[in-house]
Structure formats: structure tokens, C-alpha cells
Amino acid sequence: GAGVSQSPSNKVTEKGKDVELRCDPISGHTALYWYRQSLGQGLEFLIYFQGNSAPDKSGLPSDRFSAERTGGSVSTLTIQRTQQEDSAVYLCASSFGTSNQPQHFGDGTRLSIL
Amino acid sequence: RKEVEQDPGPFNVPEGATVAFNCTYSNSASQSFFWYRQDCRKEPKLLMSVYSSGNEDGRFTAQLNRASQYISLLIRDSKLSDSATYLCVVNSGGYNKLIFGAGTRLAVHP
User: Fold this and answer.
1) Quick check: B78 and B16 in contact, CB under 8 A?
2) What's the CA gap between B56 and B62, in Å, rounded?
């Protein structure tokens, strides 16, 4: 079956521009997570959506970062006024949302800020 | 203190060796535990879940010690293809959110 789909796979943009990253979770998965990973570093949690509950935004690094999940399915992560330190791979994962279910990851979006 | 802690390594072992990684977690209410594997420049992939009684999948054995709040992963007869970063994952107590450790790097050499 279809896995988690992320787009674009690569994004190069100039400092100061806004970018929007998209994640299509596995059908039926109620939980959706965004992470970012810099080269050689671990996963940095950004935001977590679970069903209709208020999202856990505790990992967003600044108010330039925001995310939405419309209709409990597709999610977009928006970064405004991008900075060079935003360059990283942005990974999305989804799961069935109960604590004993593992996450399944998309291939990620590699974001490069010039 | 981080919720999930792992020795970053690297663990450099020869082919055929047995290697073990530990991971400690801080939330005693955590109920779900997993090991993931991440290859260089790839997304993490589920390796195995960790069950209370311990479980085995081929050359891989996972153990849970609730009293000491750690989980372990044992790899027997290491292969070159086992070279990767191994991520410990724990759920955050009463919540469904999964927390990832920073990973332990394994390098298997000929």
C-alpha cells in the first residue's frame, strides 16, 4: 500500500523566502508528526497532530514555523522568512495514533537555504 | 535530562561479532518501545517493537527492563549491512507521542 508521501523531495530557496512542505500520511493514520534532521544529527521533534486534538507544538523552534493539518489528513509545514539555519531534512511520520503503534516515515524534504 | 538517552557511539565491530546497545528512558509511565534503524541520508525505518517479555527477530533480540527503565538491542553475527544508526523510541507516558533518542551509530567492518 501507499506509504507516507512528502513533497517536494528537494527544495532550494533564497534566505528570506517562505516555504511550504507537504505531507500525505498513510490512509487511516490519525497521528502525524513533523521532525527535522540536520546532517549527522538526531531527529528534532517539531509538531504532533493527533486526531481532532489541539496539536503539540512544543518543538517548533520559532514563530516563523507553523503547521496545519486539514481534514485530519494532509499536513503542511510552513517556514516564513527562511534563514540558513533552517537548512535540514524535514521528515513527516504517521501512525494509527495509539501508543503501541510505531510511526512510518516519508522520504523527507531536503531544504537548502542559500 | 533527556526523555530518551543513548550512547552515540560509534561502535566499530568486525563482521560476525555480537554487539549490544542500551537505551534509558525517564518516564516510568511509558508503555511502548521500539527500535528503528536509519541509514545515512535515509529516513528511519522500524526495526522491531520491544515487548515486556523480550523478543527476537532473527539475529536481533530486544529486551525491556522496566525496573531500571532501559531497553536493549542485541545483534548477533553482525553483517556489513547492519552498519547504520539505531534509534531507541519510547512513548511519552499517558500520551501517544513517541520520543526518539539521538541514536547509536554502528559500523561493521570486514
Assistant:
1) yes
2) 6
Query: Could you tell me if A109 and A34 are in contact, meaning their C-beta atoms sit under 8 angstroms apart?
Result: no
Q: For testing the chain B interface, which of A23, A39, A43 should be mutated: the one with the most B CBs within 10 Å? A: A43
Cβ pair A105:B45 closer than 8 A: yes
Q: Angle B50-A72-B33 (CA atoms, 0-180°, nearest 5)? A: 10
Write out chain B's pLDDT in tens, 110 residues: 788 999 999 999 999 999 999 999 999 888 889 999 999 989 999 999 999 899 999 999 999 999 999 999 999 999 999 999 999 999 876 566 788 999 999 999 99
Interchain CB distance below 8 Å, A102 and B89 = yes
Of A11, A1, A40, A23, which Cα lies nearest the Cα of A114? A11
CA angle (B42, B47, B48) in 5-degree steps: 155
Q: Residue A57 in 3-state DSSP?
A: coil
Residue closest to B67 by CA, chosen among B28, B20, B23, B33: B28
Beta strands in B1-110 (DSSP E): 4-6, 11-14, 19-25, 33-38, 45-50, 55-57, 60-65, 70-75, 84-91, 98-100, 104-109
Whether B2 contacts B98, CB under 8 Å: no
A-chain residues within 8 Å CB-CB of B87? Answer: 42-43
